[in-house]
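Recall from the previous lesson that a structure prediction takes nothing but the amino acid sequence as input. Here we apply that procedure to MFS transporter from Streptomyces roseochromogenus subsp. oscitans DS 12.976. The sequence below is the only information supplied.
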Amino acid sequence: MTSPLNPSATPSPAVRWTPRLWGTLLVLCAAMFLDALDVSMVGVALPSIGSDLHLSTSTLQWIVSGYILGYGGLLLLGGRTADLLGRRQVFLVALGVFALASLLGGLVDSGPLLIASRFIKGLSAAFTAPAGLSIITTTFPEGPLRNRALSIYTTCAATGFSMGLVLSGLLTEASWRFTMLLPAPIALAALLAGLRLLPRSAREENHNGYDIPGAVLGTASMLLLVFTVVQAPEAGWASARTLLSFVAVAVLLSAFVLIERRSPSPLIRLGVLRSGSQVRAQFGAIAFFGSYVGFQFLTTLYMQSLLGWSALHTALAFLPAGALVAVSSTKVGAIVDRFGTPRLIATGFALMVLGYALFLRVDLDPGYAAVILPSMLLIGAACALVFPSLNIQATNGVEDHEQGMVSGLLNTSVQVGGAIFLAVVTAVVTAGAPAHATPQAVLDSYRPGFMVVTAIAAAGLLITLTGLRSRRAQPSVVVAGSTVREAEAERVAVRD
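The prediction returns the following tokens.
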């Protein structure tokens, strides 16, 4: 193992990159790739689904929202369940459910059943994502080894998100059902490989029972928050229904915090948020994914509705960003080792702000190489730096028995950030929608949305910059339930 005070020390043979470690990482990367793939792939197929199953626009929305609702609403529970019941067991069971739900989604002939399959897939992803991330952070020791593993892992997520657009454009030409069925054989292959390769993980034995009230309130509050945000543009942000729902969310979250403070075995140990780097990682995740989802949504509308590009043409326009992320996967870990996560996250957010700002130049006849491509490359570089660094920063300094909890918290920030800011961007664009929808008027209504996206990324940059003010830690800090020695605290502060 590496020395806890010297993560750059040469690892012993037990923790070197062996074929089994590569196999373990490949299984976990496959699951994360599928989670991200499923988020992006369904969007291009929606018109074909609506035509084939005779679904209204509001019903089609729930094919996307159902997945987000299950995913974002149950991540906290999924992360803590992995800690308590065993990461390997939870991961494999959830992956099996994901495969079955994918098969169901490709075979049904009913809108409600398709939405139900999407919800089940989101639910299963809420368990595979934090379990998979915590398997990595407990299998690979903190330092260069883990940083490299996490950079590859998170790159698979970004690549899956980008490839989902391209694959959906190709598969929908044949049938939208192939977009639903594609994840099933991949998930099954990963499941079979995982049975042989994933390390066995013991259940947490020394816990003080299960936090049932916290689990119920935490899950209910996240489900209601995501549901409220998803429905707000349709119901109206100032409607009584939306306002009452937000009040209910606030009440549930307040009750959840009170229970977590008193529970002997909390779903989330609130003390973990005393770490400034942990808080910055969570808010950074919200701003990062929230801004990107809003950008992709508006850009897809711009390219297809205003420029008349096909789904495949649109997907290929995004491809340079995904390709840049993919080719950088094995390099980011070494960069983190040298410069630390705060600098990389700040640099990535700066590139993201610049990429979004440059995209404001678009018009009704843009030159792709001169106008669109620079933004795509900047955003791709930003994703390559920010996403792996956020995962490394959130999981560093956290004890093994709380890795699932922290992983669930980070993934919740990602999903809730995406849901909230997508709804905000949609509301801004809708509010400025012209009465007479000429192409130029529609483009003008999109610009405030792009400005909001840029502002969200700028907020993420400002949050990250607060972590660069001090390069030294206090004599001791509470990171994950225990006091860390001064030397360890200094290392965590300097690197993360």
